[in-house]
Amino acid sequence: MSGHSKWSTIKRQKGAADVVKGRVFTQAARAITIAVLEGGGVSDPDHNFRLRLAIEKARQVNVPKENIQRAIEKGKGGGAGAMEQVTYEAYGPGGAAMLIEAVTNNKQRTVALVKNLFDRAGFALASPGAVSYLFVRSGIVTVPKGSHTADSILEAALDAGASDVVETGDMFEVYTEVGKLSEVKCALLDKNIVIDNTEIIMKPIIPVSCTADELRHIDQFIENVEGLDDVHAVFTNVGN
């Protein structure tokens, strides 16, 4: 899952070769709407870094300008079908905890769809707060290894607010507080370091390990949940 933290299965703007164009546009638009919602209705990308990231990714997959503007208006509560963000908390096998983020204009519809998948998988929806305390919201910048080392990447971004660098496969994951994400990204770019992806995730405080069978069950469930149009992101504390 190049360019994405192992802690998240945030839906990718994959491109037409992987999913149909309409679905790519829909997910890109939802990311924009969420950015406005989480930014307190701030619709100026110069003052809402998450919105700026979402717009950049939407443009990369050629989302039309009018689609972008419509998604911004939905986040502000303007027009028909105003959207709101909802989060579902759940437990799976092996002590796995999950957060499911969705954006919807009909919460009853969305919870019914999500609950149906939980029931089929034998997982349990949890009450608000029962799972979220196991995670912390973090910013992450993903950098291809190239000729870099973890120390050189951390040195380049430390003064800007980077807190840790983790080696994952052929990538380095640079972690930071959400409020420092823009500065960390700019610091890396100033050093001519190529950036693969920048995003905000829910990172587990203490990862858990699951058996191979449990992992397959969890992966299948996440794939099914990601198939719901309303779902934007799934986070888990499974570390293996």
TrEMBL record:
Superkingdom of origin: Bacteria
Gene3D superfamilies assigned: 1.10.10.200, 3.30.70.980
One Pfam family recorded for the sequence: TACO1_YebC_N
Family that this chain belongs to: Belongs to the TACO1 family.
Origin species: Candidatus Gottesmanbacteria bacterium RIFCSPLOWO2_01_FULL_46_9
Listed name of the protein: Probable transcriptional regulatory protein A3A63_01580
Gene Ontology biological process terms from the UniProt entry: regulation of DNA-templated transcription
Entry GO terms, CC: cytosol
Domain TACO1/YebC-like N-terminal residue range list: 5-78
Keywords of this entry: Cytoplasm, DNA-binding, Transcription, Transcription regulation
Domain TACO1/YebC-like second and third, residue spans: 83-238
Main location: cytoplasm
GO MF term set: DNA binding
Recorded coiled-coil stretches: none
Cellular localization per UniProt: Cytoplasm
